[in-house]
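Chain and backbone:
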Amino acid sequence: MQHDKLVGVNVEGFQQGLVEWFYTNQRTLPWRENKDPYHVWVSEIMLQQTRVDTVIPYYLNFMREFSTLEDLAYAEEDKILKAWEGLGYYSRVRNLQTAVREVVEEYEAIVPNTRKEISKLKGVGPYTAGAILSIAYGKPEPAVDGNVMRVLSRVLEIDEDIAKAKTRKVFEDILYDLISKEDPSAFNQGLMELGALICTPTSPGCLLCPVREHCRANAKGIQHTLPVKTKKKKAKRKYMTAFIIRDENGRVLIEKRPKEGLLAKMWQFPNVEVDRHMMEIEPLTAILTAEVGQGVTIGERIHKVEHVFSHLIWDIDVYTAVVDKNENEWDAGYQWVDQSEIEAYAFPVSHQKIIKHYFYGE
């Protein structure tokens, strides 16, 4: 039985218009050069919450480094974090490696081709599963992301709040009836491409839309009011102070973040959370000494960095410092490195900004 939202819709005409438009207008992207499931998988994980233009060089480099499932499955974690450095949301690549290793060991290095099996893999949610199954295996499985929900909200005049997790299921149910069974790969990619290029969040290009004749929102002139999406909570701001600490040999102290949580296992310069605009040297010295467990002398404030996460803003003041005596044992999480070695370590973007300013004058 057809979904009630599709009553009155020329499903075949919609499919044909979308698929033909996609083949004519699709962007040339490196992960579209073939439909290898591993390539599709890596690209879809990278594209989560990241712009296409940003992903392209990362994807090309990543596939050079880890060209096969086996390469990624058994790579050192520091190596994959370095390859991912700057993309953010680092749990994505950790989960990807865990899942790829399971595919190598449990599925004879063949990415599963059923939703039940592929959904068991770590980090593979409903969207990623649908994308791999439809694009790589040609299976009529929905792949619902923000672009798809925006397009279908307008075409079918759906006023469900797309910020709510349960709304995804509404669109998945519709797509099982709407998706092209003959070419699900082009259909799903076409929906995503349409949302990225034509049916954009603001100022949708309705005159260029290949499925405009099927669009209820366009017919009523309400395309700018859809989709319905509640606003996210305002990001919380944290005030941090980071320190570039040197010893008598000119080496720099870096530390590894905890194994769990935000930016887990990334490297950074020692830093502490402080009260807003704390800049008095004496209390900062006491805080830093307690943090690193060694005597330090703080120098001048040299830089300020702001870094925005989806839910959090780091406001970082950066100081130089020197360790008083580098004779005691340091905790295992700390490491002294020469300036020339810093590029070998994976730092979050906020601390990459510090490196560029302090070491390279950028």
Q: What stands out?
A: The CA atoms of residues 305 and 316 lie 5 Å apart.
